[in-house]
């Protein structure tokens, strides 16, 4: 019998900041002995930035301007009462030596008079630079004095308020609920999840939002629980706005590293964020003073069935067989929703019984908008760039991007894997070889080093990207693997030497592969507030380490270009994009071949009234 290894000591990673010395501190704390076993000091003079903003930092940023007499005079000069002002703390980014050495935030404000949708009533051109450590106003910029504050008309989005004003929805849709009379098919023990042929660890995280780890899938032929991924999560988000003006050029956010996706995730709205059959998981985080608190119901787990088909085939009279075989697709979804200022991000990890993992990011919430004197497009001079779309009178939705980079520590059938590029290209036939002139051929190449694993996706350079275990072969000799299947995405059009792009250099490519290094967790660097781009995924990849038959990490970036339109006002319908991790020669055959079809006797009989009591098992 194998000897049981001792449990490793429990340690906590701590990021601290001292306002007195303006220095950051990276510590490792042994929780058993209550001792610090590692301590690294990062002075403000270094190329690194500062830790993510705490709740106290954000409160300091928005409250400091309101105590400044010059700011209050400026607000009143715009025709806005100070009591009607709500402000947002905004990271200032990095644009040279002038703002280095101290922790700064830019603050912009809105009028909440007659609306709760403050984002639609910007006090345009008014920007306050705040020193977060000194709690003081450094500078006030006011270059929008002639721009009116947009009206509050049609900014409401709350259901009860809209019902009071407009009555019930004109053509309502009957509600749909998924019922499981026999209960859920998955089990949760602590943070361990088991469902169908999957088992994985799921935990909320202050920065990433949610982390999936130790994902294994059972081989139906052998019963073996086979490794797929050691750890996966959203490592960083980059949101650059495309207006170079004084009040907008710095709006190039790194949401995970500056605010924390988990810290910005509130409890989910039962029945609306997640269906009736969902299970909820709490997050446990710490305040800036180290006190624990619970964020209730911030992650949900649920089985999804939407009438999709897992596989099917029919035969008819041509073959002489009368066959109709169809299997329903049921999946397991782990979901989190984070609200970072005006935007809402919904992240789904979806597991299928055929071994596929689908990661989906959905965007909703409010646009970040710009005030303007124009009330109609016919007033705009032909040579003037609005940097966006006129949504209503005096309001522009500014063009912007969203990039979400996922860190995927793949362990396909073990730790040592290789990255393989399968390039599809046109092949021409020889004269007399075939009636065909051309066909598509596939060139398979094992990538040896990190620089060669930088991938820019292109429709005109079609390829597949496999992570394989060269030491594990199928019965016919193919290496066991998973492939990265890109979905709809976007690429950054910013200059690679533009300051925000230097900080977000991880978006220079859609796929990267690096050698595993425990310190390389966050694509934009550990400390991102006012970072300069010296410690990013691009920096690590430049080391050009060997990745063939090594412990490797895959990085994939989902991208969205967003040209706002009127339908995005006053709140945006959700838009989504996804990518897949799909088994390739991992199983010897279709792993859900023996899946059972649904029959009428398997289902409850439900009356028209929406009540659990009205569903009974036949």
Summarize the structure.
The chain has 618 residues and is mostly beta strands. It is 6% helix and 43% strand. It folds into three domains: 11-43, no CATH class; 55-166, Nuclear Transport Factor 2, Chain: A; 186-303 and 331-416 and 487-577, Distorted Sandwich (Beta-galactosidase, Chain A, domain 5), CATH 2.70.98.
Explain the overall architecture:
Helix content is 6%, strand content 43%. With 618 residues, it is mainly β. The chain has three domains: 11-43, no CATH class; 55-166, Nuclear Transport Factor 2, Chain: A, CATH 3.10.450.40; 186-303 and 331-416 and 487-577, Copper amine oxidase, catalytic domain (Beta-galactosidase, Chain A, domain 5, Distorted Sandwich), CATH 2.70.98.20. It contains six helices and 33 strands. The chain has a 19-stranded antiparallel β-sheet that branches. One of its GO terms (molecular function) is primary methylamine oxidase activity.
CATH class of the largest domain: Mainly Beta
Mean pLDDT: 94
Morphology: globular
- From the alpha-carbon coordinates, what is the Rg to the nearest angstrom? 27 Å
Number of domains: 3
Q: What is the helix tally?
A: 6
Percentage of helical residues?
Answer: under 10%
Let me know the largest β-sheet.
19 strands, antiparallel
**Unreliable parts:** none
The CATH architecture of the largest domain: Distorted Sandwich
What structural class do helix, strand and pairing data support?
mainly beta
CATH superfamily of the largest domain: Copper amine oxidase, catalytic domain
In the CATH scheme, what's the topology name of the largest domain?
Beta-galactosidase, Chain A, domain 5
DSSP strand content: 35-45%
> Cα distance, first to last residue?
48 Å
């Amino acid at each position: 019998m194998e000897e049981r290894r001792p449990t490793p000591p429990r340690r906590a990673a701590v990021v601290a900041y001292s306002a007195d010395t303006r220095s950051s501190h990276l510590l490792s704390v042994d929780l058993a002995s209550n001792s610090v076993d590692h301590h690294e000091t990062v002075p403000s003079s270094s190329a690194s930035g500062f830790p993510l903003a705490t709740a106290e930092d954000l409160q300091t940023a928005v409250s400091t301007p309101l105590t400044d007499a010059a700011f209050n005079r400026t607000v009143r000069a715009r025709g806005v009462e100070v009591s009607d002002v709500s402000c947002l703390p905004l990271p200032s980014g990095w644009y040279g030596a002038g703002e280095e050495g101290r922790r700064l935030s830019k603050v912009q404000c809105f009028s909440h008079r007659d609306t709760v949708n403050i984002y639609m009533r910007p006090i345009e051109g008014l920007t306050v630079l705040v020193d977060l450590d000194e709690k003081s106003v450094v500078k006030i910029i006011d270059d929008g004095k002639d721009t009116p504050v947009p009206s509050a008309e049609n900014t409401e989005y709350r259901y009860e308020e809209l019902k009071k004003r407009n009555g019930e929805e004109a053509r309502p849709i009957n509600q749909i609920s998924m019922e499981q009379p026999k209960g859920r098919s998955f089990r949760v023990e602590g943070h361990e999840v088991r469902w169908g042929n999957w088992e994985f660890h799921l935990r909320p995280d202050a920065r990433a939002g949610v982390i999936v780890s130790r994902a294994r899938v059972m081989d139906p032929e052998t019963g073996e629980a086979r490794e797929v991924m050691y750890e996966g999560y959203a490592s960083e988000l980059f949101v650059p706005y495309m207006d170079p003006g004084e009040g907008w050029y710095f709006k190039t956010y790194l949401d995970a590293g500056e605010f924390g996706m988990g810290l910005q995730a509130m409890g989910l709205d039962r029945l609306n964020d997640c269906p009736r059959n969902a299970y909820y998981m709490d997050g446990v985080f710490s305040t800036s003073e180290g006190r624990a608190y619970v964020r209730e119901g911030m992650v949900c787990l649920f089985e999804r069935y939407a009438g999709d088909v897992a596989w099917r085939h029919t035969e008819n009279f041509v073959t002489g067989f009368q066959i109709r075989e169809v299997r329903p697709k049921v999946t397991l979804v782990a979901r989190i929703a984070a609200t970072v200022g005006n935007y809402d991000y919904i992240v789904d990890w979806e597991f299928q019984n055929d071994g596929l993992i689908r990661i989906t990011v959905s965007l909703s919430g409010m646009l970040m908008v710009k005030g303007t004197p124009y009330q109609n497009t016919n007033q705009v001079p032909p040579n003037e760039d609005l940097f966006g779309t006129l949504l209503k009178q005096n309001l522009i939705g500014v063009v912007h991007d969203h990039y979400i980079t996922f860190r995927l520590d793949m362990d396909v059938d073990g730790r040592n894997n290789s990255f393989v590029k399968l390039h599809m290209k046109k092949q021409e036939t020889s004269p007399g070889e075939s009636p065909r002139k051309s066909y598509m051929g596939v060139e398979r190449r094992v990538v040896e080093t990190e620089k060669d694993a930088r991938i820019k996706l292109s429709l005109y350079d079609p390829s597949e990207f496999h992570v394989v275990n060269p030491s594990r072969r199928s019965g016919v000799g193919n290496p066991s693997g998973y492939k990265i299947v890109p979905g709809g995405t976007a690429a950054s059009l910013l200059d690679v030497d533009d300051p925000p792009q230097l900080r977000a250099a991880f978006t220079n490519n859609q796929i990267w592969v690096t050698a595993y290094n425990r310190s390389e967790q966050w694509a934009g660097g550990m400390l991102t507030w006012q970072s300069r781009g010296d410690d990013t995924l691009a920096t690590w990849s430049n080391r050009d380490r060997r990745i063939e038959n090594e412990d490797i990490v895959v990085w994939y970036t989902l991208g969205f270009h967003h040209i706002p339109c009127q339908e995005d006002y006053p709140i945006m319908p959700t838009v989504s994009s996804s990518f897949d991790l799909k088994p390739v020669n991992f199983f010897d055959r279709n792993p859900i071949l023996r899946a059972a079809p649904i029959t009428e006797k398997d289902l409850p009989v439900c009356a028209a009234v929406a009540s659990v009591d009205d569903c009974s098992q036949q």
